[in-house]
């Protein structure tokens, strides 16, 4: 019933894959060596009273609870779509900036809680939880939701529902996880909105990004996922029908592409005109030009004898691509898709191809330009 965002696998997301493997592996090691767990606790009291500033680093990287590690890893896996949209350097800058901001916001929220309720928060859940919660801000604003099904006929299930459910599960795992989540959301809003120019102050330098790409990509890069995933044996009838419809649409688009290559010259400067290759999917078979009727011969006008009728087999119809049409695009939808990082030309061509259906255009852009 639930689907994840983006294509399968961790292709073009080396940072997300590295975080999943390294942080999960360190959590397993600490659970096998519990005598070292006290070095990685996120103790606010030890930081303020005993001046153990190093806990701001050790206590905010590795989760000590396996359940928190599982939910945190599942969120990082789904947020890999942000790394594909923004790029690894911008994605790393967002994590680094929010990691620094959450350290400050954690203390401010704990002091506000102590002032309002007269209760001192001495320890918070350990791990890379604040920056992961901050990723909900660009995920909510940048990734469009695509309806999947209806629950009880009223509740709409989208491709983003699973991510929000996992976030709620992580939110209820410990008593003060809500404080970490609130700190992450506030920090994510500040960094995503570039409040006080924090993006110019907290970012990953270009040279460090190149070093990371040189080190991480050979270690964590993998083969790209297949273009067309196979139909699941255990899928429901509705899901199988939807998958077959998607496969049929992709075959039609490929047929249009080959037809356009046969009928048109390749564009100059390496630019592809999608408007010629991928027309509207909603008006297939419409606005077809009338077929020319042949002029009858004198023998056909005045037949002398009726022709003998012989049983013939019906002609074989070869699949052809629908006619190429132009459709005006909506500027509001163009702006929404451009916020995801796509160029205006690609967005306009994708919207024309889908007849201004933003869900179809989004899926097409994610599959072919992701």
From TrEMBL:
This is UBA domain containing 2. It is a multi-pass membrane protein. The lineage of its organism: Eukaryota, Metazoa, Chordata, Craniata, Vertebrata. The keyword Membrane applies. It comes from the Eukaryota. GO terms for cellular component: membrane. Residues 328-368 form the UBA domain. Keywords: Membrane, Transmembrane, Transmembrane helix. The chain crosses the membrane at residues 15-33, 91-109, 124-141, 162-186. Residues 304-322 have a biased composition (Pro residues). It is found in: Membrane.
């Amino acid at each position: 019933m639930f689907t994840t965002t983006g294509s399968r696998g961790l292709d073009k997301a080396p940072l997300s894959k590295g975080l999943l493997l390294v942080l999960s592996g360190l959590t397993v090691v600490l659970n096998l060596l519990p005598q070292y767990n006290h070095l990685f606790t996120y103790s606010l009291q030890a930081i303020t009273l005993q001046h153990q500033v190093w806990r701001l680093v050790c206590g905010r990287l590795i989760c000590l609870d396996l359940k928190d590690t599982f939910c945190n890893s599942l969120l990082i896996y789904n947020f890999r779509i942000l790394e594909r949209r923004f790029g690894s350097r911008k994605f790393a800058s967002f994590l680094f900036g929010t990691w620094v901001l959450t350290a400050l916001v954690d203390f401010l929220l704990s002091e506000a809680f102590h002032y309002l309720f007269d209760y001192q928060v001495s320890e918070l859940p350990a791990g890379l939880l604040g920056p992961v919660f901050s990723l909900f801000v660009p995920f909510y604003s940048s990734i469009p939701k695509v309806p999947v099904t209806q629950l009880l006929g009223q509740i709409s299930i989208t491709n983003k529902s699973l991510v929000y459910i996992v976030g709620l599960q992580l939110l209820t795992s410990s008593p003060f996880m809500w404080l970490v989540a609130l700190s992450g959301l506030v920090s994510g809003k500040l960094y995503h909105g570039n409040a006080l120019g924090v993006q110019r102050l907290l970012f990953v330098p270009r040279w460090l990004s190149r070093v990371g790409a040189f080190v991480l990509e050979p270690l964590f890069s993998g083969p790209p996922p297949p273009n067309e995933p196979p139909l699941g044996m255990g899928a429901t009838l509705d899901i199988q029908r939807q998958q077959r419809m998607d496969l049929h649409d992709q075959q039609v688009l490929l047929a249009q592409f080959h037809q356009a290559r046969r009928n048109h010259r390749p564009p100059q400067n390496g630019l592809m005109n999608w408007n010629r290759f991928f027309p509207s999917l909603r008006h297939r078979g419409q606005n077809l030009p009338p077929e020319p009727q042949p002029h009858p011969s004198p023998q056909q006008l005045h037949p002398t004898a009726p022709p003998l009728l012989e049983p013939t087999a019906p002609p074989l119809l070869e699949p052809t691509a629908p006619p190429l049409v132009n459709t005006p695009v909506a500027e509001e939808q163009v702006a929404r898709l451009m916020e995801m990082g796509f160029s205006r030309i690609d967005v306009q061509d994708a919207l024309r191809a889908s007849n201004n259906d933003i869900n179809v255009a989004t899926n097409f852009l994610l599959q072919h330009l992701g």
